């Protein structure tokens, strides 16, 4: 943190000058030290000129002091600390008076930044979480303020006997970067407070009630739904029949791939999990790629075999293929036998649950034991959750198929039970890190919620399911439950954009890697700010919307009205699908957004030059769930063609059949 400006000194310092006191323990030198009576008796012209200059300086300094007072000072307080297993979180609030902008909170140990010697700087937090009206009033923020913080202080440095100091950082003016109230207390002396989102009670829960289901499958589908889907597959020439033919062909490629499906990984490198366990494509961000040689060595792939790619998703679609056959779907001529698909799905799941994700002692890794290339610790929630949602689907379907015995089921249940807490705690820890508000509610959080709800439903565990849904269970804290996420991931009526990465250019064509307009439209997905290339502007929002749809199906199956739900600004899944349908209607699927064609779509400026990619999947889903919405159904035929032309391996199992014929 920066030191206080040179003209500001602690109140404890005294000399013969006159000081004007300011708030928070500082004062400003207002007049020179010579008494005024001496000045008026001075007759020397040169000294008189110096006197006049000093009087004007004094007037300037008094004005500066008044301006500093008007600018607003740093205020705030530490409320306490929360614990969840091996995690600890510091909660409180901080702001600069009169400023709606969220401020940085710097964490020091042992001594403050103003002490000599200074304390040990450990980390920065951001006071950018939703804050209560009382805090907003204290901050002088007339809008919906975001001045609360939750900071992950799980590092061993934060021993109970060490003193903690939090400095709030100004956003305007020259006021001090002052300590917030409660600084100087030892961590072990702080009050224990609940670990939950600050404004949890303001977000409505969906209507409905959890209902148990003894039989499998019960997570993303039911036996009755599988039979209905099989009947659609058996209608000659139906769209579902076309898609099943393509699924069968993909299953054939999986079985003939030459991949060593027994090879698994147990190290800490999260990006190796990304490619071998979670997602099939080898591409990605430059820092996430690993060479084939690196992957082979990490997984100990047998000679002559290929490296696993997206094993979790492959297992899910193999199990789905076999489950549809059991439900009555007629297998295309020459397609693989369902028993082959079942055997490989089971083999993949048992291999990863028996030997994957383990530490050096053979235990499942916890959320602190994953790393980037080079060994730096990293958050594993995103990469693991995208895999686990598929392994849960696969286990659920294999239980329906009756191919898992008691010990095998126990092994898989133990695996998923362990991953529930790994992903939940990693998600909470990520929320307690320094992120812009827009990054806290992006597509990764949808993946986390998908996996947690799926695991809870696999076990038919109402308590854990509702903990993830509403965040109100102190025994299973979830900092971003579905009720909060839904209301922050989608923009609604008269909404305002969340604080995000600042633009570094005047428009969407020049501002990289992020760009946001100053206004938002109802139905927009807030994960819209990514702007490295034309694929991201709409592609990322569609990733979030896809996750919201998968969660909606989970909730529907568990007894909740996820489609009739309306957020605090009347947000809905239907409105989001309708919003992005406008660009598909104006330009066409996988075409570039232009002002000429898309000018009638709300907030077109956000998406100029972006590709209308991945919109076809929500459109197909929306046509089935909202058949009276002609803005969506008018695009159904074109969306079918786009979905066939642009297959996405991630959609094979979770999205299959979620359309109408």
Query: What percent of the residues sit in helical stretches (DSSP H or I)?
Result: 40-55%
Task: Kindly estimate the percentage of residues that lie in beta strands according to DSSP.
Answer: 5-15%
Low-confidence stretches: 1-46, 55-69
| Total strand segments | 9
Averaged pLDDT, please? Answer: 89
Structural class of the helix and strand makeup?
Answer: mainly alpha
Oligomer: single chain
Distance between the termini: 61 Å
Strand order of the largest sheet: 1-3-2
Radius of gyration: 29 Å
Shape verdict: globular
Number of helices, counting only DSSP H or I runs of 4 residues or more:
22
The biggest sheet amounts to: 3 strands, antiparallel
Task: Briefly characterize the structure.
It is built from 22 helices and nine strands. The chain has helices at 36-40, 45-71, 133-139, 223-233, 239-255, 270-278, 292-299, 311-326, 338-355, 381-401, 406-431, 437-440, 443-458, 462-470, 482-489, 536-558, 573-587, 595-598, 616-625, 630-633, 636-645, 651-654, and strands at 8-10, 18-21, 26-31, 74-84, 87-96, 103-109, 120-127, 148-152, 164-168.
């Amino acid at each position: 943190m920066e030191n206080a400006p040179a003209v500001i000194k602690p109140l404890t310092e005294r000399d013969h000058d006159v000081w004007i006191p300011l708030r928070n323990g500082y004062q400003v030198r207002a007049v020179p030290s010579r008494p005024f009576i001496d000045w008026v008796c001075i007759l020397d012209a040169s000294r008189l000129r110096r006197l006049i200059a000093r009087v004007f300086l004094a007037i300037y300094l008094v004005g500066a002091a008044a301006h500093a007072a008007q600018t607003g000072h740093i205020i705030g307080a530490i409320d306490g600390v929360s614990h969840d297993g091996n995690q600890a979180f510091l909660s409180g609030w901080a702001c600069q008076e009169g400023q709606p902008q969220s401020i940085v909170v710097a964490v020091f140990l042992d001594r403050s930044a103003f002490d000599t010697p200074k304390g040990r700087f450990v980390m920065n937090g951001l006071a950018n979480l939703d804050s209560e009206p009382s805090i907003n009033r204290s901050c002088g923020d007339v809008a919906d303020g975001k001045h609360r913080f939750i900071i992950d202080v799980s590092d061993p440095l934060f021993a109970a006997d060490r003193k903690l100091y939090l400095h709030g950082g100004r956003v305007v003016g020259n006021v001090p970067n002052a300590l917030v109230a409660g600084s100087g207390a030892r961590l072990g002396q702080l009050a224990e407070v609940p670990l939950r989102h600050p404004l949890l009670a303001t977000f409505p829960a969906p209507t409905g009630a959890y209902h148990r289901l003894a039989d499998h499958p019960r997570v993303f589908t039911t036996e009755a739904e599988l039979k209905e889907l099989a009947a659609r597959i058996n209608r000659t020439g139906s769209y579902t029949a076309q898609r099943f033919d393509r699924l069968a062909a993909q299953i054939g490629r999986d079985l003939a791939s030459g991949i060593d499906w027994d090879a698994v990984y147990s190290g800490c490198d999260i990006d190796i999990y990304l490619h071998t366990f979670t997602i099939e494509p080898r591409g990605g961000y430059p820092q996430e790629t690993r060479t084939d040689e690196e992957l082979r060595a990490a997984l100990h792939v047998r000679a002559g075999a290929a490296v696993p790619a997206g094993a979790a998703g492959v297992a899910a679609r193999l199990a789905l293929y076999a489950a549809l056959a059991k439900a009555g779907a007629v297998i295309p001529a020459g397609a693989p036998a369902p028993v082959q698909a079942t055997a490989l799905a089971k083999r993949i799941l048992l291999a990863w649950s028996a030997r994957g994700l383990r530490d050096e002692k053979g235990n499942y890794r916890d959320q602190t034991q994953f790393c980037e290339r080079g060994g730096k610790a990293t958050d594993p929630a995103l990469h693991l959750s995208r895999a686990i949602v598929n392994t849960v689907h696969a286990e659920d379907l294999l239980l329906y198929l009756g191919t898992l015995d008691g010990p095998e089921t126990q092994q898989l249940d133990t695996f998923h039970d362990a991953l529930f807490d790994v992903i939940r705690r990693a998600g909470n820890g990520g929320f307690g890190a320094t992120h812009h508000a827009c990054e806290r509610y992006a597509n990764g959080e949808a993946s986390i919620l998908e996996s947690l709800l799926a695991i809870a439903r696999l076990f038919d565990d109402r308590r854990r399911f509702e903990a993830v849904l509403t965040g109100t269970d102190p025994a299973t804290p979830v900092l971003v439950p579905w009720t909060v996420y839904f209301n922050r991931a989608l923009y609604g009526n008269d909404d305002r954009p969340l604080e995000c990465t600042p633009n570094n250019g005047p428009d969407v064509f020049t501002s990289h890697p992020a760009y946001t307009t100053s206004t938002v439209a109802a139905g927009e997905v807030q994960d819209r700010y990514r702007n490295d290339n034309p694929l991201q502007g709409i592609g990322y929002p569609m990733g979030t919307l896809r996750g919201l749809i998968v969660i909606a199906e989970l909730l529907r199956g568990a007894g909740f009205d996820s489609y009739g739900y309306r957020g605090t600004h009347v947000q809905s899944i239907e409105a989001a699908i309708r919003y992005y349908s406008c660009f598909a209607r104006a330009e066409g699927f996988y075409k570039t957004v232009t002002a000429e064609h898309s000018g009638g779509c709300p907030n077109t400026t956000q998406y100029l030059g972006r590709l209308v990619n991945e919109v076809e999947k929500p459109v197909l889903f929306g046509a089935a769930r909202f058949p009276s919405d002609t803005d969506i159904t008018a695009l159904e035929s074109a969306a079918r063609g786009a979905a066939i032309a642009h297959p996405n391996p991630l959609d094979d199992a979770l999205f299959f059949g979620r359309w109408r014929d």
